[in-house]
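hiii so my PI (J.) wants the whole complex modelled not just the main chain, which honestly fair. so below is everything: three entries, each one labled with what it is. i double checked the lines twice but i was tired so who knows lol
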Amino acid sequence: MRHLSRQELPQDSVTLARYLIGKTLVRELPRGRRLTGRIVETEAYLPGDAACHAYVGPTPRNRALFMAHGHAYVYFIYGNHFMLNVSSESEGVGAGVLLRAVEPLEGVELMQKHRGSTRLRELTSGPGKLAQAFKIDMNLYGQDYCTAGPLWLAEALQPVGRIGRSRRIGINKNAQRLLRFYEKGNPFVSGPRALRG
DNA sequence: CGGCTGATGATCT
DNA sequence: GATCATCAGCCGG
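here's the output for the full assembly
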């Protein structure tokens, strides 16, 4: 499997969010164990977007959003869940793409163990579930997705279906903007039925 | 199936 | 003290 280079990764947030659909998320764990998933749902958070965590300017929490595109921004929310993002735009500009869902490929048994569930549909169909299945936490903060390491992005392994576009899920500010992308009809896409077709 | 709600902690006011 | 890019469990149809 081939890494995506920073050069081939789009810098523009919206372009990146759409581009990532169908690509492969790779998580390397100790003892040579590997988890992989096919990205099927993303959301873009833009410069100047009140819903973006970088909107308030750089802070210790959001600094990874200001890194060059292709670095991991991880945060903890609702006292329970980690969210995994890919930084976008150029260095110094705060923006990113939230990875909301993947289709499990390699390591399904280990994902089941991390999630405490054997139900395939429930393993990675949402940002919190995906992070738990892939053992994502603050240790991965700022990781480069374009180099060898515990977390990286690889090329698509299968053709990509039709890509849908909708409003983002779970936010109030700028809620009307069409910045969510997903593979139409994929059973691992999260959200209400109306936002999955 | 859809709708509702409590849990739980970091961050900011 | 409020907010928050969520989830599981419970309830009703």
